[in-house]
């Protein structure tokens, strides 16, 4: 039986104890919680569009996968939540800056709201550590 380990990056703020884990690894698979554009104090970054928020989020996901021993190309599945699907191209533009070759399988879902009004994008993922292109 595989044990559960928590991967922590010095570049991604961890939530307070008892809320959630940003990245859990089981049997070489990393499960990445929904990330948003928050600063080191876990406050939402104000005034950013979907592209800018997505870049921050993809960087966090990359940092967490690296903390788990992998790289961005190990990410095989993304679920992207947006508050305005008409602005999805801005999210896709940011995604293209982080991935190439086999892009992760992906779902894009519009939601009525996220954790705070200024948060327009939330992204979660799954990575198979060591499976991506080098």
TrEMBL record:
GO (cellular component) term, any one: cytosol
Any matching Pfam family: Ribonuc_L-PSP
| InterPro entries in the cross-refs | RutC-like_sf, YjgF/YER057c/UK114
A GO MF label: deaminase activity
Gene3D superfamilies tied to this protein: RutC-like
PANTHER family, sorted: 2-IMINOBUTANOATE/2-IMINOPROPANOATE DEAMINASE RIDA (PTHR11803), PROTEIN HMF1-RELATED (PTHR11803:SF58)
Family label: Belongs to the RutC family.
- Its name, as the record gives it, is RidA family protein
Natural source organism: Phreatobacter stygius
